[in-house]
Every structure is written in C-alpha cells, then in structure tokens.
C-alpha cells in the first residue's frame, strides 16, 4: 500500500472511531422498546410512563446518535397538540356524574377524573412517541432490518418494516425539497398561510414521490442481491454477545412479571386520580 | 459468455409498439461494450432486460441465457442508492452482505473499491451530504464490490467530472481484465465509451447492423475537443446583471467557497466546472439563499434591473426568485404537479390582483404557460405526468417553470445530464432564446465540450476558488 493511501486509511479509521461502538444490538433495542411499551400500557399508573419518559430523555441526552433537538421537536410536535385535545375533551368535558370538580366555568368543569384520564392517556402516548422517536431517529432501515432478522422474523416482513422506517427521513427530505423548490419560485413558504395553500400540491407530489421511490429502491436492492441469498449476513456491524442475548430473554420475562404483579395487586402503584386529587 | 440474448422482443404493458425489436446481443466476459442510442431508443430497457427486471412489466419473446450474476446501475441519478443505509461505508458494503459475504470481506472489498475510485475519505460521510457525482460513485462501488460476472451501467458517467470518468474507466478495465464483462449504455460518448472494445448503436429499439457515425444516430459527443475555442459569440460589454463579490461559504470548519468574484452579463452563458464535490451546487444554492443553517454565507450578491441595484444577500430566498430562476441538479425533486402544464401554471404565485381580476390573471398565466411550453418544446407532453418523462425532459420542465417567473438570471445545475444530441440542441435553443431576451445564464456542468463550445465565459472551481 502506498504511503498516501495508508495515510488516508489512518484518517478514515480515525473518523470511524467517532462512530459509537458500544451501542446495543438493534434486536436488543427493539426488545427493550417493545417491553417498555408493554409496561406503559400494561400497568395502569402514570408513574410507569413518567419513568420511561425520564429514561428516554436521559438516553437521548447522552446518545451520540440521536440529536436532542430533533427528538424534542418530533415529540413536541406530536405530543403538545395531543395534550391540548385531551385536556379540552377529557379534562374540561368529562361526561361522568360522580366527579370531584376542581373548577367550573359554564359548561366546562375541570374534574379530577377527567384530568386523570387525560394525563394517563397523554403520558402513555408521549412515552410511546418518545420511545419510537428515540429508536427511529437513531436507526436506519438496515439497522432495523438486522434487528428484526436477529429476532427471527422472516426476511420479507423485516424488509417491509425496514422500508417503512426508511420512508420517514425520505418524506422529511422530500418535503424540504418541495418547499425549497416553491421558495425558489417566489412562494413565501415561511408563512404558514402560504404553506397551507400549497399543501394539496405538496401532498400530491409527496405521494407520487413515495410510490416511485419505493419501487425504485426495491429495484436497486433486488439488483444488489436482496432475495439472492437466504443466509445473508447482517447489513451492518453490531456489538452482540451473551450478555445481550440474556438481556433479550430476561427483559420480556421481567416485563410480564411486573404486569402480572400489578394486575394481581402485588405491586400497588398509585393511579392518576390518586396522584391528582388524592382520592 | 455471460448473457446471450437471441431475437428478443419486448413490449411494455399497455403499449402498442415494442420497446425492443429483434435484439440479438452477447455480453462477453472480459470485454467492455457500449450500446448507445438517442433518448427513447430503448437503451435503458435493454439494461433492465439483461438484469432480468422486465419480467413483470410487459411481454417478452426470444431467449435470454444468463450464465452468471448481473449487476445493474440505473440511469436515474435520484434512484441509485438503496435507501436502506445512511452512511457511505454501509451503502458500499450492502450488496456484498446481501450476497452473504463475510462482514470482514465485505468491508475489505468496499474499502478497496472506494480507494480505487478515489473516494475513500467519504467512508464515514452521510449519504445525504454527497454531491450527485459522489452518490453515483458510491452506487458503482456497491454493485461492483461483490464481483458480479456482468456489470450493466446505464449512463454511468453522467454526473462525473472528466478525471473521475477516467478513474472509473481504469477500474472497469481492471474488472474486465479479471474476467468480468461490462456493458455501458447511454446517449452520449465520453471517456468510458472511448475505452470500449465494441460500440453498438440502438435506434428505435433495433440494434444497428451498419456502423453509423455518432452524430447520425443522434448521440451527443461530450469528449473535450482540444481544437475548440471558447464560444465565438462576442462577449457582452453591457453592465452586469448579477455581481458577486467575495462570496464565501463555510460549513463547520471547512471552507466550501473562498471569496468568489464574478459578474454575469446580459446575453452571456457562464459555465462553472470543477471536480465532483467542488461546491458547484453549493454556489448556486448560496446565490439563491437556499443553504441550510449549518452553512455560513458571507459576501455580496447584487442584481441590476433597469439601472436599479438590489442587494440579494439580504433578501429571503423567495424574494430572490424575482431575479434568479433556479433549476436544481435533481429535477424530480422540484416537480410536484400531476401534469406538465399544471407544474407550470402553479410554478410561481400569481401577481397581486383584485378578486374581480382573477379570471383575467389566470387566463394570462395560461397563455404564458402555453408560450413557455412551446419554447421548451413541451407542448406535446403538456398533459403527461412529469415522472413519465425521461430525465432530460424532466429537467426541461423545471427550466420551463423557471421561465414562468420574471427572473433575468437562470441558474442551471448540470443541465446537460442524460441528453442526446437532439436534447442538447433543445437545451441550447432554450438558453439562446433566454439570452437573446437580455437574460444571463450560469450553468454548472461536467461537459467540457459543451462548456467550451457554448459558454461565453468559464469559471473553474478549484479548492473553493474560481479560476477563469
């Protein structure tokens, strides 16, 4: 090897060292994701989603892969409107009769029961979105594909799921490009009124682009060897080992144990109504 | 022999006429063959036929014998990456891993290929930060890494600079020396087709038996002509329409453009050439104000209209469009309407008007669209979906949509990609017409011949600086 190429490889290796090496295997991440969601929806206490959300925020903060700003924007954009809708529908107009009213103004009444349902639903939805955003923003299609195949899903199913997650950044990029193209033709796309006016055109273009891209990507993958070998190796390098294999077995068992304990009353966690109104 | 086609006829579903007629062709191991033809002649269909991608798309007769693996690189620059990965390293190993190669072997093969192609420093780069040419090279590395028996490349050089084409030619030659076969198709002759042992011509779906000249079958010759001089049209002495001074673009710690100074004068085409990734597209996007927040842009951009000077660098992107019409590298990213004519009708906002005048304004817009369609020779496809047209025609639609604005300066990013002789003439006619109306054009290109023969002024970007 020439000195020049050796130098280049050294530079490349140095750059490669910046990529996170001690990251969990995607199959382990998927197992933790699924178990966390099971806990959030299986145990009827707001404490669980709060713990999961806190854990998610801490993970995002220390993660070198997921940017906190992107994660916060995604979660905020999806969760804040949900919160407003839930507080209005459940918090202010809870239909029950036997309720503890905290404040009343005309037909709207802020009740402990309505608020507790709103908070419970919102925390669960936020935990769901937060966790999925953490995984989605930190993984590309190949990573998800590897994870699902390690979990013994058929390649066709893994490919479909991986293609679907690959559409998320594609939709984002395409939308940016379409808006950029409109800007370059004089549309003041910074203004929301203009964006809303352009929305039908943007959506039409987006749908066409998605359909075309899915087809083209499948052709590209087919000509690159997809379906050529049933025993294809992982598409990316991941760290794995006995510890992680054990984690993938134990996490679901612990999750099921916690849910059973909660349902049978062995694990008495307070509900939302107790926390809000002390009922 | 890797693939042998005997008397193959192929008709796309829903079409009456055959896209390929009576094709008899052998792709032989250890040789490089080129099949050239004008747009619509069936070159891309032939590629897909060889790669076995047409089975479900229409009716095929004749015999195709494949004695080995065939890898295909499609012609659409926007659709050459898999979408499965985010980084160059992962993308270039993808095919090896899908074919079941050991990860260490896949890694070694991909690294070697990137090194041979001179892009090893891109290993850790995100794919969405690559230039068009870099993207194309990564796609070549991906399909070449597993060592297929036959490599089918549809317009592989279209986004590459001349040096990179020569480099790719060397890599392909070595691949053939090791026993691989290469088939190159396209609408232009270039550094890659020059080294092919055999060049055949396809016309209206039929392989020609006689040996015609390149021009007689409608092929554009993009190879630099040493005898050519800069456009013989006299340079304009008029005041510049656009004046750029000390334009600098930084992205993080790296300087992309370093203090560029140039003027664009009415009636003049200025070409911008430079290596892949030299910052040509960045230059156009900086002028338009379309660079993202990670880029810092300094310098002055001034436009002159009717003697009035306007500083564009202080204006938002949408306000700059009154002076600058942009045609990006990937035309498909700028198209979103269901028909060509609708794309033009909705290209730009209608001018301010009262509600009672709306009918008149819309009718005026329709007549503008009709005249632009005629100017760009798009009238015949006005009701077609833009994505049903080839890459060159899609680019023409975006150029036409730029002509729908009042812009006096056109910024064209790689307008020559994927064009045959007729499409190049069409492009030149559109540009000439715009220049004759007193406009100025700034066009990036890797086509040295086109730049030599048609540009009035030339800028070459080297390490962020402009050399005339």
Automatic annotation (TrEMBL), chain A:
Keywords: Membrane, Transmembrane, Transmembrane helix
Membrane as UniProt keyword: yes
Subcellular location per the Swiss-Prot or TrEMBL entry: Membrane
Segments traversing the membrane: 30-58, 70-94, 115-136, 156-173, 194-214, 249-269
Annotated stretches, region: Disordered: 1-20
Any single Pfam family the record assigns to this protein: CbiQ
Membrane topology per record: Multi-pass membrane protein
Identification of the protein by name: Energy-coupling factor transporter transmembrane protein EcfT
Protein's organism: Brevibacterium permense
